[in-house]
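Here is an idea for our session: we take a single protein and study its fold together. To get us started, please write out a protein record for me. Start from the sequence, derive the backbone structure tokens from it, and show both lines together. Go ahead whenever you are ready, and we will take it from there:
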Amino acid sequence: MPDPASRARTLLDLHTAPEILVLTNVWDVVSARVVAATDGVRALATASHSIAATFGYEDGERIPLDLHLDMVARIVEAVELPVTMDFEAGYGDPGGTARRVIEAGAVGGNLEDGMRPLDEAVAAVEAVVAAGRDAGIDFVLNARTDAFLHAPADADRGRLVEEAIRRGRAFLAAGAPVVFVPGVVRRDEIAALVGALGPQRLSVISVPRRSLPVRELEELGVARVSTGPYTQRVALTALQDAVAAVVGGGSLPENTRDLN
């Protein structure tokens, strides 16, 4: 397995390349191995929501950090590709948590701002960047702003874009290489964010039935698209459909493959 500094550099290069980085979020060792073995996959991302659900916890830092990190370390050990971890809002200590994330072998991570005051959110970004620097790696921080996620349904979309830009620029200035804006799916809003933050600076999540195709996101200059908890939901949907078929008198899907 390449050393952490090499994996971190590879992950950073994948974010800055003209070709969009597609990250399929995983939640355990077998999902990581299946995704890593798929043609075209160049890196992995963990999903905090999905790892929490695996152990019976709700999302939102309810899973103990030690348990969360243990699963991430197992995933890192199981694959050769760079791994980036969603460590939510940093479990109360973004810098300290980032150091533990790096010790677990991940070379990048998501940090959400929770719409805290901007100076606090920037300080958290700076602490994570410093943790990577102290560890001697280019830790790839996907600095997340919840401007869209925390907004009421009737919020002015133009003002949400402006706030995401304001926060995103501050995070980039603090050392984050990429800004994650979950909740943004419209072409005009994505184009505005890329225009303000720069190409290969914006990260988005693919939402079933709502998001643009990956190819179109790439054309707009998006750096990265991930799948978040939706990958696990795809797997669980297939499981429930298969169960319903068998219970209903049928059989398992004929295209089932031996993936484990």
User: Anything to note?
Assistant: Strands lie at 21-23, 25-26, 44-46, 83-86, 108-112, 140-144, 178-180, 202-205, 224-226. Residues 4-229 form a domain with the TIM Barrel fold (CATH 3.20.20.60). Residues 21 and 224 are 5 Å apart (CA to CA). The longest helix spans residues 230-247.
